[in-house]
Design brief:
CATH superfamily of one domain in chain A: P-loop containing nucleotide triphosphate hydrolases
Strand order of the largest sheet of chain B: 1-2
Helix content of chain A: 25-40%
CATH topology of one domain in chain A: Rossmann fold
Structural class of chain A: alpha/beta
Largest sheet of chain A: 6 strands, mixed
Radius of gyration of chain B: 21 Å
CATH architecture of one domain in chain A: 3-Layer(aba) Sandwich
Number of domains of chain B: 1
Number of strands of chain A: 10
CATH class of chain B: Mainly Alpha
Largest interface: A-B, 45 and 37 residues
CATH topology of chain B: ABC transporter involved in vitamin B12 uptake, BtuC
Structural class of chain B: mainly alpha
Strand content of chain A: 15-25%
Oligomer: heterodimer
Strand order of the largest sheet of chain A: 6-7-8-3-9-10
Order of helices and strands of chain A: EEEHEEHEHHHHEHEHEEHH
Radius of gyration of chain A: 19 Å
Number of helices of chain A: 10
Distance between the termini of chain B: 28 Å
Largest sheet of chain B: 2 strands, antiparallel
Chain lengths: 259, 349
């Protein structure tokens, strides 16, 4: 495993907002088919790491290597096309469009027809659309969502919206899947389903999964490794069991014991 | 009958406009109104693409219309009419039939290229910059034309009537009506197909959640620029027709008032609804004509309509829906293309 190139290697990633150091000298390596957790108290810089990784912010310093390709300086859509899919902390589906369209738009960068084809619905355009639709429907079927293809996402229950968002992130067949607090706002039943779903996605689609999460059940249940952030800095790293007993982590979450 | 709704509708409209007009069934005022409606539909549909579907806020649509108007009329008058500025026509009357549509296309392309100057800087940033920049562009356009004395400056430019005469001398059919009809159909056809393709739906995704659109592999910057150019190009096409319809244009024809009129058509019809835009373009044009006896007072009616609209139907007549979605029985005649894609794949299983 050590000889294999890591799926993702981040080195010395640093980013500031004004005077605030959101991420400071962050480094990590993710290997194929791992499920890795990124945890930390609110404001620790977890989502910032994701946003830097997918090109929404431009890092001030550091290297982001995805399968050896430098991501720094690339625009978000290019990074996604390289093979990184993500979901958002607050679900960001397009509510004005159907579930099916949400998935189809994921193909935008690989449509292979031009704007003139779009104007006149040429044979090439229709062939591509049929193919894209078929692929999207297939994905929906394997997620058990095909019944909801024509529905606008906002009309679906919360758990299903999360499912659709993960589905959308997989449209481009990414090799790295970023999940930003996928269990936020879910009840225990939904969380169990989500855990099964994430493991199933990893096995079925062969992706490496990187999760930001607060729910201990998920972290302890499916993450193989954990990294803990606080104030932009990595304060601990290891297996869930090691992290659970780490006094530094407990202090970061709960504060110093009162004497 | 089924699924043939669109060609039937186009055919019927053709007979009612171009057909009846060739037979001399309308007086020139009715003809003028019909053409004005067509032009307003084009303007509304093209602005709806930008402000409705894409959710940007362009407030200077008339500037792009004006570019098309001036470029097309300068070309046709220079080549085809006996004019103060350019002197005798360069080409014989017979050429007019070909030159006229070409000049319209050149005007549309000029408007699209001009819009690129606006689009590139304003879409680099997010937010309301487009509104400020398009407003400024509308002012710049007016001042530039006013200071170009060679083409009439603030006094305006005329001679387009001679162009239409040259065409009618060659072959006696209602040329302008034909081209308004063709352009309106083309505009609606292209825009409706564009916004129903996965590529075009990207602009709705941008309106809905731009961050998600950016991350989900939509090249938002490019898509926004292309869509803006498309909308402005159709405004330029409408402008060229408008100039020939009026026979006389001046810089204030393409100023804020005109921009606002197009915006009212879009908001009245519904953001993101082409059938709404058509309905409101027809209704609004006729209403303004009906209020003509009020003189300047009719400009009080426009804000009043807007206030009533915001109070009682803030998303416009149709919202973002099309007629077949409101009246499902229409679906038999006007199937949405996405239904087709879906059926093709479902039957392919």
């Amino acid at each position: 495993m050590a000889s294999e190139q890591p799926v993702l290697r981040i080195e010395g990633l640093t980013h500031t907002f004004g005077g605030l150091k959101a991420v400071s000298d962050f480094s990590t390596e993710l290997h194929r088919n791992e499920i890795v957790g990124l945890i930390g108290p609110n404001g620790a810089g977890k989502t910032t790491v994701f946003n830097l990784l997918c090109g929404l912010y431009r890092p001030k310093e550091g290297d982001l290597l995805f399968e050896g390709t430098q991501l720094r300086g690339r625009r978000p859509h290019e990074i996604t096309s390289l093979g990184i899919g993500r979901t958002f902390q607050n679900i960001r589906l397009w509510n004005e469009l159907s579930v099916l369209d949400n998935l189809r738009i994921g193909h935008s960068s690989r449509l292979g027809y031009g704007i003139v084809d779009a104007f006149f619905h040429t044979r090439r355009m229709r062939a591509t659309e049929a193919e894209v639709t078929e692929q999207a429907m297939e994905l929906l079927r394997s997620f058990g969502l095909e019944r909801h293809a024509e529905v606008r996402p906002r009309n679906l229950p919360y758990g299903l919206q999360r499912r659709v968002e993960i589905c959308r992130a997989l449209v481009m067949r990414p090799r790295l899947l970023l999940l930003d607090e996928p269990a936020a706002g879910m009840n225990p039943g939904e969380i169990n389903e989500l855990m099964e779903l994430i493991s199933w996605v990893r096995d079925t689609y062969g992706v490496t999964v990187w999760i930001i999460e607060h729910q201990m059940r998920i972290i302890m249940g499916i993450c193989e490794r954990l990294q803990v952030l606080n104030f932009g800095e990595t304060i601990a790293e290891g297996t869930p069991e090691q992290i659970q007993g780490d006094p530094v982590v407990i202090k970061a979450y709960l504060g110093e014991p009162v004497a | 009958m089924e699924r043939r709704g669109t060609p039937l509708l186009i055919g019927a409209t053709f007979l009612l406009t171009v057909g009846a007009s060739s037979l001399g069934l309308y007086n020139s005022y009715v003809e003028f109104l019909i053409m004005l409606i067509g032009i307003n539909i084009m303007l509304g549909a093209s602005l709806n693409l930008i402000n409705g579907y894409m959710g940007e806020f362009s407030v200077g649509h008339a500037a792009f219309m004006g570019v098309g108007a001036y470029v097309a009329s300068l070309l046709t008058v220079w080549l085809l009419a006996n004019d103060r500025v350019f002197g005798l026509p360069v080409l014989p009357d017979g050429a007019s039939i070909l030159v006229f549509p070409l000049a319209l296309v050149v005007g549309a392309v000029a408007a699209a290229l001009f819009s690129l100057l606006v689009a590139v800087p304003s879409f680099r940033t997010r937010g309301d910059y487009l509104a400020i920049i398009t407003l400024a562009v509308n002012f710049i356009f007016k001042s530039v034309i006013e200071n170009l004395d060679a083409i009439g400056g603030p006094r305006g430019f005329m001679g387009m009537g001679g162009v239409l005469n040259a065409m009618e001398r060659t072959w006696r059919v209602p040329w302008l009506m034909i081209w308004v009809f063709v352009s309106t159909v083309l505009t609606l056809y292209v825009i409706s197909r564009y916004v129903r393709s996965t590529m075009g739906k990207g602009i709705v995704a941008i309106r809905d959640d731009e961050i998600a659109a950016e991350v989900m592999a939509v090249d938002t910057r490019r898509l926004k620029v292309v869509t803006f150019m498309l909308g402005c190009g159709f405004a330029g096409l409408a402008g060229g027709l408008h100039a020939h319809l009026l026979g006389f244009i001046n810089p204030s024809s393409y100023f804020i008032l005109q921009s606002v009129m197009v915006m009212v058509i879009v908001y009245l019809g519904g953001m993101g609804s082409l059938s709404g835009t058509v309905i409101s373009a027809v209704g609004f044009t006729l209403l303004l004509e009906a209020l003509r006896p009020l003189g300047v007072g009719r400009w009080l009616a426009v804000p009043l309509i807007l206030i009533l609209l915001m109070r009682f139907r803030p998303s416009g007549l149709m919202g973002d829906r099309e007629l077949p979605e409101v009246f499902p029985w229409l679906r038999r005649y006007f199937p949405a293309p996405e239904d087709r894609f879906l059926k093709e794949t479902v039957s392919g299983q």
